[in-house]
Amino acid sequence: MKLTLEEAAAGCVKTLRGRYVDRCSACAGVGHRVLRGVCAGCEGKGTVSHRAWFGWYGVPTTCTACRGDGVAREDCHDCAGAGKFPARAYRVNVRIPHGVRDGDQLHVGARRHRAGQAAVSLDLTIELLAHPLLKLDTDGTIRCEMPVDGFVWIANRLVDVPTLAGMHKLRLSRDELVYRLPGLGYPAERRGARADQVVTLRPVFPAQLSADQNILLDQLIATTSGAGGPAQSPELSGWRDALRDWQHNHVRAHGQA
Ligand SMILES: [Zn+2]
Ligand SMILES: [Zn+2]
């Protein structure tokens, strides 16, 4: 049975349809009953010779009554010699518990869909379909690696993140590339509690900046790197001072910049 990751994470009810063939229990599936004595058709020889033209005997052929072994038998009355009954349709509802894994085997006990229908028991093998956006780890962690507009990332905006429970709004933080969404992963074990989802961002910036984008970036840089700019960070101003001191000493010691 093929399940999407979402179906398997939440558990689901599936309707299985198919056809089954019942073996004849009266003859144990062989289609005949062995009688005492030898086959009447060939007197136990297993072959019959047909009289051919001019009185010569033809090539012996296998006896059709005993199929060649000379044993007397008669067709089973219950199944008319077929050993089985004509195929019948079945339809069974199966509840799949949440948290099944790829390759899991499930046994569904005998159940009857309708009165008069034979009970059908099924052995199922679970196959989890690959998810287009999410990846399942063995411990139940769901991983999502997503590209994000680099400018959206540094602006701390909200982005849509796919989860097994649907779309999730995630507030970005420009100093974080990895985010953990507690309880939004896959069940850690069958029928168990959900693990976490881990989102890893890959900020994407334009390969080539347009003239407008360059102007906007120049304006941005002027607010942070302009001399004594209001948004100058202590880390950057400290580095700039240390750089200036080093250059000054270097020139004094070696006579060149
Ligand atoms: Zn025979
Ligand atoms: Zn039979």
Instruction: Determine the fraction of residues in helical runs and give it as a percent range.
Output: 10-25%
Q: How many separate domains make up the residues? A: 4
| Order of neighbouring strands in the sheet with most strands | 11-12-16-15
Largest sheet: 4 strands, mixed
Cα distance, first to last residue? 73 Å
The count of strands amounts to 16
Which kinds of small molecule does this entry bind, naming each only once? Answer: zinc ion
Q: Taking all residues together, what is the mean pLDDT?
A: 88
Give the name of the CATH superfamily of the largest domain: Urease metallochaperone UreE, N-terminal domain
H/E element sequence: EHEEEEEEEEEEEHEEEEHH
Structure description:
The protein is of the alpha+beta class. It folds into 4 domains: 2-21 and 87-128, no CATH class; 32-75, no CATH class; 135-204, Sandwich (HSP40/DNAj peptide-binding domain), CATH 2.60.260; 211-254, no CATH class. It contains 4 helices and 16 strands. It has helices at 5-10, 150-154, 211-225, 234-254; strands spanning 2-3, 12-20, 32-38, 47-48, 61-62, 71-75, 88-96, 105-111, 120-125, 127-128, 135-136, 142-149, 158-163, 166-171, 178-181, 197-204. A 4-stranded mixed sheet has the order 11-12-16-15. Strands 1-10 form a two-stranded parallel sheet. A two-stranded antiparallel ribbon has the order 2-7. A hairpin with a 5-residue loop joins strand 11 (135-136) and strand 12 (142-149). The chain is elongated, with a radius of gyration of 39 Å. The chain starts with a strand and ends with a helix. It binds zinc ion (ZN) (2 copies). One zinc ion (ZN) is lined by residues 24, 26-27, 31, 76, 78-79, 83. Residues 39, 41-42, 46, 63, 65-66, 70 line the site of one zinc ion.
